[in-house]
Each structure stands twice: as structure tokens, then as C-alpha cells.
Design goal:
This protein is of the alpha+beta class. The protein has helices at 4-46, 51-67, 69-88, 97-112, 139-148, 185-188, 191-203; strands at residues 95-96, 121-127, 132-133, 158-165, 168-176, 208-214, 218-226. α2 packs antiparallel against α3.
Length: 235
């Protein structure tokens, strides 16, 4: 009996350690699955391109080919740059703002083709464009602005402002709409805005603020993101 208790104790501790090891193994497997799921969700959200925008752009380019071949060529180059950005840059976790700005410029310039007064679209950037940001993050806000903007009365019909200082990025869109039209937060906050909220929660949890304001004739969205490295949510 003298050797019984040590053997029993060793067996108990052995079982305990096996339970601990199995628990850690299960947690690691779960973490890896969560990581893969998160990566897949972000990949789907980043890779989205509004099909209406693509079809409308191709139609606009087609109408330009005979009327203004040079402008049609420039539009094709911009569309090619957009597709290249979505194909390669969005596979990265973060990109520099200057790349995102070029992407946004290409989107806006292709929208200008269909507007009688292209100057009614305003895009202003200020600050440090080397700050890193999740790629293709602001496009839902721009698409939302173009979808509901009117260019008939107040100028500009759509304004897009981006400010980057000390790792804090403020991105704002303001679009005019007809006073007599039915424009509601529900209409503006469609699937694109919902996808944006999902992506923000996945990438910048508790480090962003999305403000949506519906005025009498102007719809305003302001997104503020804290991108400081020690506060980023990484997977």
C-alpha cells in the first residue's frame, strides 16, 4: 500500500495535465477556425464591387468611344486600375491611404462621366496619407452618396472629405437630395452601409464612430477611425 498513493497521485496529475493539454489544443483549433472565418468574411466584404457601377461605367465608356475616344481610353485605364486594386491590394490587411485615395479618385472620375456638371462633385484630402487603413473601406459611403445625390440645386451635389492626423482618420460624405423626395435613414443605410458596419466591427472594434445625419436637404455621413498600431485589431 505504501506505493499506492504516489501511483494514484501521479495518475491523477497525469489525467489533469492531459485535460489541460486537450483544452489548449481545442482552444487553439477554435482560434484558428475563428481566424479563418474572419479572414473569409473580410475577403468577401473587401472584394465587393457594385455591379451596377461596373455595368453603368462600361455603358458610359461605350457611348464615349465614338464621341471622345481619348476620354474613353482614360476611363478604361481608370477602370483597369480599379480592378487591379481590388484584385491585389485588397488581399492585404492594410494599405497606405495614398493608395486608397487613388482608388477613390478613379471611382469618382468614372462617376463624373455621367454627370452634366462634373465640377459638382468635390473630393478633398488633407493630412498624412502614409497612414495605413483597411483597403476599399470607404467605397460604400461614396456609392451611397452617388446613389441618392441630386446635382440640380445646391452645389456641390456630393462632397467627399478625408482628413488624416496622428493616426486618426475622418472620412465624410455629404450629398444633396430633393426636398420633395422620400429619403430616409433606412433607404440610405442599405446593404453597403451594413457591410461597412460589419467590416468595421471586425477590423476596428471599439475604435471607430459612424455618424449618420439626415438634414432637410443634405445627407451627411461621418466616419472616424483610430488606426494607431497598438490599438488595431489584427487576426
Amino acid at each position: 500500500m505504501s506505493g499506492y498513493y504516489p501511483v494514484l497521485t501521479a495518475a491523477v496529475f497525469g489525467s489533469f495535465f492531459r485535460v489541460i493539454i486537450n483544452w489548449f489544443s481545442t482552444m487553439n483549433q477554435k482560434a484558428e477556425l475563428d481566424k479563418q472565418k474572419l479572414a473569409a468574411e473580410l475577403g468577401l466584404l473587401k472584394g465587393k464591387l457594385n455591379p451596377h457601377f461596373l455595368f453603368n461605367t462600361l455603358n458610359n465608356i461605350d457611348s464615349l468611344i465614338h464621341r471622345d475616344p481619348e476620354e474613353a481610353s482614360e476611363a478604361l485605364i481608370r477602370l483597369s486600375d480599379i480592378m487591379r486594386y481590388l484584385t491585389y491590394e485588397t488581399t492585404l490587411e492594410f494599405v497606405e491611404l495614398n493608395k486608397e485615395v487613388e482608388y477613390i479618385k478613379n471611382i469618382i472620375e468614372l462617376h463624373r462621366i455621367r454627370i452634366k456638371s462634373p465640377e459638382d462633385i468635390e473630393f478633398i484630402t488633407n493630412g498624412d496619407l502614409t497612414t495605413k487603413i483597411a483597403p476599399a473601406l470607404f467605397i460604400p459611403l461614396i456609392e451611397n452618396g452617388f446613389k441618392f445625390a441630386t446635382f440640380r440645386n445646391r452645389k456641390p451635389g456630393l462632397s467627399v472629405h478625408l482628413l488624416s492626423e496622428n493616426g486618426i482618420i475622418v472620412f465624410e460624405t455629404s450629398n444633396c437630395y430633393e426636398k420633395g423626395s422620400v429619403v430616409s435613414r433606412e433607404k440610405h443605410s442599405g446593404s453597403g452601409i451594413n457591410d461597412l458596419k460589419t467590416r468595421l466591427e471586425l477590423t476596428y472594434p471599439a475604435k471607430y464612430k459612424l455618424l449618420i445625419e439626415e438634414g432637410e436637404s443634405v445627407y451627411h455621413i461621418k466616419l472616424t477611425i483610430d488606426t494607431n498600431a497598438d490599438q488595431l485589431h489584427r487576426y
